[in-house]
Amino acid sequence: MYNVLSSVSVERPDFILASRKGPDGHSSPRRIESIGGTVMYTRDVEIFGESEPADYFCKVVSGAVRTYTVLADGRRQVCAFYLRGDFFGLEANETRTSSADSIVDSKLLVIKRSVAMTLAQTDEEIARQIWTIWDKELQISRAHGSLLTKNAKERVAAFLLEMADRFSGTDQVELPMSRRDIADYLGVTIETISRMLADLEGHGAISLAGWRRVLLRNRRVLGQLCLREA
Amino acid sequence: MYNVLSSVSVERPDFILASRKGPDGHSSPRRIESIGGTVMYTRDVEIFGESEPADYFCKVVSGAVRTYTVLADGRRQVCAFYLRGDFFGLEANETRTSSADSIVDSKLLVIKRSVAMTLAQTDEEIARQIWTIWDKELQISRAHGSLLTKNAKERVAAFLLEMADRFSGTDQVELPMSRRDIADYLGVTIETISRMLADLEGHGAISLAGWRRVLLRNRRVLGQLCLREA
DNA sequence: CGTGCAGTTGAGCAAATTCAACGCTTGTGG
DNA sequence: CCACAAGCGTTGAATTTGCTCAACTGCACG
User: What is the secondary structure of A73-87 as a DSSP string?
Assistant: First the structure.
């Protein structure tokens, strides 16, 4: 158990509905980001838990978040990582199907679902954005499924490429998550992650600097390793 | 290559928009099914292919459908099976991210996406139904991902239970798909499928009659095998 | 300077794949 | 009607892959 007060600080306690109106008094198409308030989380803090009411969703302003489910045998299945700019926690049902944690200190934009949904009924732009968020979730889920059909080395290679693309855009990747997180995401053990990283480094595909910093030396080799890519 | 004319027959060639109006002249909430036409497919016929325009989606009236992607190394990843009553092929993007095949002779209800989307803007009931279809897709994808973290026996057991639930509601299951389809869905080889089925039968959990017919003898044993269920 | 945590490395083992052979069913052509 | 080939499924043996368990390293923190 953690102390909520010590780990979470609300910048704008209410979900303020600042309506942007043009000079003619009509409300202009508004970005969905304008209807929420930001909240800070320290690292390793639960943002929401499975089977709680799903009455809000979030955008990662800074930091990183993981969503996961705990399986009956105690294993943890990490569903997805969400980084700067990503939305997460939007569900159709009333209750959550996964839990969410902050991986590092994170600033989140929190958006009430009911507010967004109500706005979406009249504001086509908002509706389109929600649609996009939804579709992205499906894409992430499918990509993850595709990952889980690969062998261990391919999974790790694909993971590094995914992180590089979504994170930095460069070949220098600073992984915010632990080996355990990666293992639970890729569906292998931490030992296997370790071995595969060492193996990739041995073949000159990457360089490891410290525990979290990875340099992609040879994207072509990595890419060919995940030849099994869709 | 197959002959389209020999394998597909259109019952209602146009996407008829039969508007249902109440006595007061207002159009009443309409079911999404009323805005499409039915098409027949013989078995093993492509319904749509990856990267084609995604301008329609379907409901399975009878028969069975698989969606899949072909990976770079030639392996086929079956994304999902769709049975009587299921919707499939609804995408947010303009192009398909997967292909779809009929598994057996199938009758499909085909719904134009643009028509459904336009209606959804004014008809809240239609919008809600599209929402539901979307969410179901995400659920299916997540369940599939969860499946891929299990071991072989658990995958097969979970698959049989899933099929029994979605198919018959009884313990008597008639699988419409081949071992290859199941293998490509579960991410294991056909030999493993065969062995696991034999194993389950040996332990009295199921009975096999012919290649396609499975009787679930002991759901509790099967359920405990997929203890790793979410 | 110990303690604890995160990660790495190695040896043995279990699980699933690969490769190969075989059985059953179906469809085809003589 | 029979022979035979092709397709689908099953079974067995050898091999590979990744896991388990255990020891060990490096680092942070008291």
Answer: TS-EEEEEEE-TT-E
Q: Do A146 and B77 touch (CB under 8 A)?
A: yes
Sheet of B46-48, strands arranged across:
B46-48, B99-102, B65-70, B76-82
Pick from B158, B221, B228: which is nearest to B193 by CA?
Answer: B158
Tens-place pLDDT, residues A157-198: 999 999 998 877 789 999 999 999 999 999 999 999 999 999
Residue A109 contacts residue A36 (beta carbons within 8 Å): yes
CB contact under 8 A, B92 and A141: no
Question: pTM (2 decimals)?
Answer: 0.86
Strands B172-174 and B87-88: unpaired
| Paired tokens of B36 | 């499409």
Among B83, B54, B53, B81, which Cα is nearest to B67's? B81
Residues B55-73 pLDDT 10s:
999 999 999 999 999 988 8
Please state, in angstroms and rounded to a whole number, the distance separating the CA atoms of residues A104 and A44. 7
Protein-nucleic contacts, chain B 124-183 to strand C, CB < 7 Å: 151-153
